Amino acid sequence: MTKWVYSFGDGAAEGRADMRNLLGGKGANLAEMSNIGLPVPPGFTITTEVCTYYYANGESYPESLKSEVEAGLAKVEATVGATFGDASNPLLVSVRSGARVSMPGMMDTVLNLGLNDETTAGLARHSGDERFAYDSYRRFIQMYSDVVLGVEHHLFEEALEVVKEDKGAILDTELDAPDLQRLITDYKKIVEDELGRPFPEDPKEQLWGAIGAVFGSWQTARAVTYRRLHDIPEAWGTAVNVQAMVFGNMGDDCATGVAFTRDPSTGENIFYGEYLVNAQGEDVVAGIRTPQHLTIAGREKQGSDLPAMEETMPDVFRQLDEVRANLEAHYRDMQDIEFTVQKQKLWMLQTRAGKRTSQAAIKIACDMVEEGLIDEETAVMRVEPQSLDQILHPRLDPKAERKVIAKGLPASPGAAAGVVVFTADEAEKLAQEGHQVMLVRVETSPEDIHGMHAAQGILTTRGGMTSHAAVVARGMGRPCVAGAGEIRVDYKGGAFSIAGVTVKAGDWITIDGSTGEVIEGRVPTVDPELSGDFARVMGWADAARRLKVRANAETPEDVSTAAKFGAEGIGLCRTEHMFFEADRIVAMREMILASDEAGRRHALGRILPMQRADFVEIFKLMRGKPVTIRLLDPPLHEFLPREPAEFEEVARATGVPVERVEARAAALHETNPMLGHRGCRLLNSYPEICEMQARAIFEAATAVGEETGAPPLCEVMIPLVGIKKELDLLKAVVDKVAKAVEAETGTAPNYVVGTMIELPRAALTANHIAETAEFFSFGTNDLTQTTYGLSRDDASAFLTNYEKRGIVEQDPFQTLDQAGVGELIEIAVERGRGTRPDIKLGICGEHGGDPSSVGFCERVGLDYVSCSPFRVPIARLAAAQAAIRARKHAAEKATA
Ligand code: ADP
Ligand code: MG
Ligand code: MG
Questions:
Q1: I need a surface site. Which of 14, 292, 390, 709 has the fewest CB within 10 A?
Q2: Best mutation site among 107, 282, 347 for ligand 1 pocket (most ligand atoms within 8 Å of CB)
Q3: What distance in angstroms lies between residue 381's CA and the mean position of ligand 1's atoms?
Q4: Which residues are registered as beta bridge partners of 273?
């Protein structure tokens, strides 16, 4: 027979911490605390299976539940020495919800349940404190009516105001017993008026009403939405905890409080918490009175003159400090606790793993390894990879003052300050003169890349988290606030304005790309700390992981950042950005405008030495580590200006008649450039581009090999292949150039040729493509676009709505769609390896730095992930966690 109710308290419990699925987090930990001998008010937990039963059976309870609850209650009565509903010495209980994971949207706790006119009189007599009894009763009516009966709470607040006004009182605490009695009468009348029936005076009816309300709250709109957003299955259900009340509001030898066993913001090993004398339940966090510190050190640190518990209740504090030590030794993790002191006696009401900043997570993990509480792999699991984003970038100096003038989307993390510029050219010019600049645009486009690079940060007033500005800024590791829609940019006037504040070009502003804040003036920032504890955790992570981690980088600055963050190679070196720089774009345009191959070759000849120099620098910085270089990918029109007005300038710079520029731009125009003449299609139209790029790569590699003695491994990557033959033809061009360079220099370049898998057809025909390709790199940005048939640049118009309505769970451009895109990757992996067992496999989309996507890459057995330089540590940690999880899973399977 199923057991529906589990008792706890009095030094023992039927449940345990690892029964969280059945008892919920709160119930399991109340049981565990009882088992390890901590003082927990007795009670019982109604299991999550009852919730499941309730919804599977037309909102009814299992037959034996009633008798089990009664038995549980009897046990509590015996332990406490009071009886539920007894007029002379009543037992009061709290009814608390508790799912497996803490979940907003669930029913609020009801305290003091079991009170009615008779038991309140009994409580007054028994406690010798009339005021306390009436105050508990009126709080109970208010709470129960609000959360169980659904009577609007403002009605009670208004009634309270009236009584206070009549009395001339300001604080609730100024009301005496007769005032409270009057209030109770008023409250009951409100309930009767609203519901057409009296407030339930029968304690049993109250209890079952509250239990039903907890189960009912599992399906409220708020709870359902929360579950959807956090991937919590409906089938989990919630538990209900019924627990004997302890009172922190019986006088000045009573208190209630909350604490963390270590400092949750710094991780320091100090007791960190607050308490309130003569208070109940949530009073501490409700902000009605100023809470006091637990420790003298805490009080001094905050400069508070309210006495610490260590001073006012030294005995209780000592007990609490012992509990802290017990809990940490037992759970081997930092805990977040709730407690109440009744007449100098300490009672524990809750414990759970405490939430913490990433800085604190790292410090606590390292300290606990040193203290012998946890091993190194556990330490690696204790740090949330995504949260490293908080510490890898410069942050605003927490001590500095700031005046926030606007808020946009936190599009790329980190804080930066600079003088406002409105164009990319201006940004580059001022940066070259040594200024720190902030690029402010309505939106950005590929033409702005050089300015984005030169800027400390980017602020846009239009666009979402996957807008051009956001994606490029994240890739570069530049802080970015995007879509700050209230800001009005006046390009002509050289200023922007917001809510009465006007900021002119040349004025300082600061942005925080982690919060989306735009701040007036220059706020100092602090640099990330990459040594010490951070380095230790990363070292343990590196020892645990299987996947290699590379970076997507092409500028020397990004490549050095990648190396500094521990990248083991470059997984994607885009070459087109190299053509946008001022001196190169002219040659590039000449090439595009040339009327024949000879003309193109002439222009390409001018680009060759510049590109070669770029590669020399990158190879040197990577010191022999592999570098995947993608040949030219975008369509040619991206290199021509968009505005016809600028054609004149191009004509002048290239010496081509303006009519020809216009005609060429018109000819290059495409209805759908993303699916147009680009990537290997373009390279097959103009093999001389491929030839030039291959030559630049091999000549650079040979030169660097000679100079350093460490010839780099060049991975030449052909983009957008969908048909094997497309790759065959270009590989032949690359091989020919390699032979030529060998003949010229006497050294054979060390290289392989491979392709990006970014079209469904490439994934499906991977077995054929692998006959030629020596590696695959999954370009999951384009593969997501082409699998969904969805342009990333146009998706923001409806994707947010799709997420809200649950049509898609997550933005597939941020978190890999494992069911669709992932399936294609698995097919390509299997078919690719079928043809070429040692084929090298990696991923180079934005997903390479997304922890859950990294987990997927581990599962399908890729060799490496590649992500933007600033995400390299995140990927290293995520890869380690994925490997540890996989090992644990395998071990569990082996023993089962
Ligand atoms: P939440 O999940 O929102 O934290 P809780 O069930 O923990 O809700 O309870 C809300 C407040 O009531 C907490 O401050 C808790 O300590 C207090 N509380 C709950 N049960 C009791 C009890 N039996 N005696 C005294 N205080 C209680
Ligand atoms: Mg709580
Ligand atoms: Mg692509």
A1: 709
A2: 282
A3: 30
A4: 259
Nearest-ligand number for the alpha carbon of 45:
1
In a shared domain, residues 99 and 71: yes
Same domain, 28 and 149: yes
* CA end-to-end span of the chain: 25
DSSP 786-800: HHHT--HHHHHHHHH
Residue/partner pairs of 567-570 with CB below 8 Å, 24 or more apart: 567/625, 567/869, 567/872, 568/625, 568/864, 569/622, 569/625, 569/626, 569/627, 569/628, 569/864, 569/866, 570/618, 570/622, 570/625, 570/626, 570/627, 570/628, 570/629, 570/866
**Same domain assignment for residues 323 and 266:** yes
3-state secondary structure (DSSP) of residue 225: helix
pLDDT in tens, 630-672: 999 999 998 988 888 889 888 988 888 999 999 999 999 999 8
Torsion angle of the four alpha carbons 526, 530, 531, 534, in this order, in degrees rounded to the nearest 10: 110
- The CA distances from residue 762 to 700, 717, 856, 875, in Å, are 30, 14, 20, 26
Do the Cβ atoms of 42 and 244 come closer than 8 Å?
A: yes
Query: Is 533 part of any domain?
Result: no
The pLDDT of residue 524: 93
pLDDT, tens digit (0-9, with 9 covering 90-100), for 676-695: 999 999 999 999 999 999 99
C-alpha pair distances (Å), 201 with each of 103, 115, 142, 736: 30, 8, 14, 93
- Among all chains, which residue has been given the structure tokens 């470059």? 570
Whether the Cβ atoms of residue 632 and residue 682 lie closer than 8 Å to each other: yes
- For residue 94, report the phi and psi dihedrals to the nearest 5 degrees: -105, 150
Ligand 1, atom 22, residue with closest C-alpha: 245
Which pLDDT tens digit goes with each residue over 22-36? Answer: 999 999 999 999 999
**Mind giving me the DSSP string for 844-863?**
-SGGGG-HHHHHHHHHHT-S
Q: In terms of domains, do 189 and 62 share one?
A: yes
E-strand stretches of 758-816: 775-778
**Does the C-beta of 243 come closer than 6 Å to ligand 1?**
yes
CA–CA dist 269, 556 (Å, integer): 41
pLDDT at 144 over 90: yes
> What CATH number did the domain enclosing 706 receive?
3.20.20.60
Neighbours of 127 (CB within 10 A): 17
CATH number, position 343:
3.30.470.20
Grouping H, G, I as helix, E, B as strand and the rest as coil, residue 7 is: strand
Averaged pLDDT of the chain: 93
The total domain count for the chain is 4
Residues 268 and 239 occupy one common structural domain = no
pLDDT range class, residue 281, cuts 50, 70, 90:
confident
Give the domain range for residue 283.
Answer: 255-356
- In the three-class reduction of DSSP (H, G, I as helix; E, B as strand; rest coil), residue 542 is classed as helix
98 Cα: distance to centroid of ligand 1 (angstroms): 11
Same domain, 849 and 777: yes
Judged against a pLDDT cut of 90, whether residue 171 lies above it is answered with no
Rounded-to-integer distance, Cα 28 and Cα 32, Å: 6
Q: How many residues does the chain have?
A: 896
What are the tokens at 472?
């490029």
Q: What is the 8-class DSSP label of residue 308?
A: P
pLDDT digits (tens, 9 = 90+) for 824-853: 999 999 999 999 999 999 999 889 999 999
Instruction: Mark whether 192 and 314 lie in a shared domain.
Output: no
* Domain match, 341 and 430 both: no
> Please, are residues 143 and 150 in contact by the beta-carbon 8 Å criterion?
no
pLDDT tens-place string over residues 747-777 = 999 999 999 999 999 999 999 999 999 999 9
* 824 domain-assigned: yes
Closest to 316 (Cα-Cα) out of 348, 285, 289: 348
Residue minimizing CA distance to atom 7 of ligand 1: 350
pLDDT of residue 526: 87
